[in-house]
Every structure is written in structure tokens, then in C-alpha cells.
């Protein structure tokens, strides 16, 4: 019997918590959750944030974030449960936080065959194309910020039992599109994230090849629960829906910028 969406959501939250903990250099336990910190990438919100995966006091979260993230130029709080996240909206808005939602989407269809143009690569293989693409998206970003955004991909390798960086290559062996795949075969859960296609290669099917190969690899590894996170207001969610992903839950993100220009988008 298949899991209900509520059960799937709990399994995904457990996976996300474990992934965040495993790749952190320091973890601080908090009421209703925990904080993750990583001194090598202080500008990365992903690696320096408060995560709420239980019952927390919405009115106390801002103070908790200030206490554990006070040495940083940003505050980020991720709340996995939708109801809990909605309860946090007003208290955190009063504290100066911006709120956004994340859609938790799962893939329910039979994965396609792996594409021969896609292979697993080392993180350093993606350094040049990723740096080039980030510079195009963020022309005013400092070299330090870009370096941390690129460098944090290697840190993710410690987050799960198996972490793959999948890349689609052109006939001339240039990296055209790439993404992360995090696998926990024992739990039967896989996460697909951070799909990027270089601007000059968009619209040629490379992203679809990466996604399809990731889904096939996850299924072959015994991961029947395959998920990703999507922005509710951006076009990729609809692209994923057309490829078999369905919405099962929402999580919430709250961010406060302590100084302009110092933080990263995710």
C-alpha cells in the first residue's frame, strides 16, 4: 500500500533534517528544531540557518535565530510543517522577516530510461560552468560570495548516503545542464535539487535528460519516494508538473537581511 501524502511529507521532512545535520560543521539544538552552521561558507543561508521540524514557539523564533546566527549577516528560518509555518508568519513579519513558501513535490510516474549524455561528475567539474552562470545571474555579486555559492556544492556530499552531481554533456563534451541527486536507499527517499542549464544551452532538452536520468537512478537505488522543492510563483513548478511531479505539502522560509548585499539567495 502506498503512503498517504501526510506520511510522505513526514518522511521527506525527516530526510531534509538529516541532510542538513550531516553536512553542517556545527549543530545547535533548539526547542522545536535546531540550527546548522558551517564556518567555511558563512554567506550560504542553506548552511547557516534555523530549521524548525517540530512544535516551536513562533514568538520566540526570532530571538533564537539572533542567538545562534548573531555572528552572521543574515537570519534564515526554515519551517517544514505548513501549519506551523503559517503560525510563524505574523510574528516573524513583525520581527522584520520576509516570508516565502516552498512546494514539496513528489514524482509518482514510472521514471524514463537514463540518458547516455548524462553522467555523474565530481563537484569540481561543475565549478567553471556554475561560476559562469552565477555571474550572469548575479553580475554585482562579490568574488567571495560567488566562491562560497560554488564551493558549497562539495559540502553537500556529506549530507546523504549517496550524493551525485549529474551533468548532461554536449557532443563536444561541454557541460550543458546539471543537478544534484541525494539518495538514502535505506529510507527509500531521494531528493532532486538545483537543476541548472547554461543559458546558451536552454531549450535543447538537456535539463529533461538530467531530470529523467536522476529519476531513473533514484528508482534503481530503491528510492520510491522521489521529491524536489519548487517556488510556487516561478515557472519551473509547472515544468515539473508536466513531467509527473505532484504537490503534496508546503514548507516555509523566513529571511531577514542584516546588511544589504551580504547574503545569498538560498
Structure commentary:
Keywords: Transferase. It holds the Pfam family Acetyltransf_1. GO terms for molecular function: acyltransferase activity, transferring groups other than amino-acyl groups. It comes from Streptomyces tsukubensis. This is GNAT family N-acetyltransferase. With about 270 residues, this protein is an alpha+beta fold. The protein folds into two domains: about 5-105 and about 250-255, Aminopeptidase (3-Layer(aba) Sandwich), CATH 3.40.630; about 120-250, Aminopeptidase (3-Layer(aba) Sandwich), CATH 3.40.630. The protein has helices at about 5-25, 60-70, 80-95, 125-135, 145-155, 205-220, 235-240; strands at about 25-30, 35, 50, 75-80, 100-105, 120, 160-170, 175-185, 190-195, 225-230, 245-255. Strands 1-2-3-4-11-5-10-9-8-7-6 form an eleven-stranded mixed sheet, sandwiched between helices. Helix 4 (about 125-135) crosses helix 5 (about 145-155). It starts with a helix and ends in a 9-residue tail after the last strand. Mean pLDDT is about 95; it is low at about 260-265.
Question: Do you know the CATH topology of the largest domain?
Answer: Aminopeptidase
What is the CATH architecture term of the largest domain? 3-Layer(aba) Sandwich
Overall shape: it is globular
Number of contiguous helices: 7
CATH class of the largest domain: Alpha Beta
Largest sheet: 11 strands, mixed
Work out the strand percent: 25-35%
Weakly predicted, low-confidence segments:
260-265
Summarize the helix and strand pattern as letters: HEEEHEHEEHHEEEHEHE
Structural class: alpha+beta
Q: What is the C-alpha radius of gyration, as a whole number of Å? A: 18 Å
Give the number of DSSP strands: 11
Q: What is the CATH homologous superfamily assignment of the largest domain?
A: Gcn5-related N-acetyltransferase (GNAT)
Average pLDDT, rounded to a whole number, is 95
The rounded distance between the terminal residues' Cα atoms is 36 Å
Amino acid at each position: 500500500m502506498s503512503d498517504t501524502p501526510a506520511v510522505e511529507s513526514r518522511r521527506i521532512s525527516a530526510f531534509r533534517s538529516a541532510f542538513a545535520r550531516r553536512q553542517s560543521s556545527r549543530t545547535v539544538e533548539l526547542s522545536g528544531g535546531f540550527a546548522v552552521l558551517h564556518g567555511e561558507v558563512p554567506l550560504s543561508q542553506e548552511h547557516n540557518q534555523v530549521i524548525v521540524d517540530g512544535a516551536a514557539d513562533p514568538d520566540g523564533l526570532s530571538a533564537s535565530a539572533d542567538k545562534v546566527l548573531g555572528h552572521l549577516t543574515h537570519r534564515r528560518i526554515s519551517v517544514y510543517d505548513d501549519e506551523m509555518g503559517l503560525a510563524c508568519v505574523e510574528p516573524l513579519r513583525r520581527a522584520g522577516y520576509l516570508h516565502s513558501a516552498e512546494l514539496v513535490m513528489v514524482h509518482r510516474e514510472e521514471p524514463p530510461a537514463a540518458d547516455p549524455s548524462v553522467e555523474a561528475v565530481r563537484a569540481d567539474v561543475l565549478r567553471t560552468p556554475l561560476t559562469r552562470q552565477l555571474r550572469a545571474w548575479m553580475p554585482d555579486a562579490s568574488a567571495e560570495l560567488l566562491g562560497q555559492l560554488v564551493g558549497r556544492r562539495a559540502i553537500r556530499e556529506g549530507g546523504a548516503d549517496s550524493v551525485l552531481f549529474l551533468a548532461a554533456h554536449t557532443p563536444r563534451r561541454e557541460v550543458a545542464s546539471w543537478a544534484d541527486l541525494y539518495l538514502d536507499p535505506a529510507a527509500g527517499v531521494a531528493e532532486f535539487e538545483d537543476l541548472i542549464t547554461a543559458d546558451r544551452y536552454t531549450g535543447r532538452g538537456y535539463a529533461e535528460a538530467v531530470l529523467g536520468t536522476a529519476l531513473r537512478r533514484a528508482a534503481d537505488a530503491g528510492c520510491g519516494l522521489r521529491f524536489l522543492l519548487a517556488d510556487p510563483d516561478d515557472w519551473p513548478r509547472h515544468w515539473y508538473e508536466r513531467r509527473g511531479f505532484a504537490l503534496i505539502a508546503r514548507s516555509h522560509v523566513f529571511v531577514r537581511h542584516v546588511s544589504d548585499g551580504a547574503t545569498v539567495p538560498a
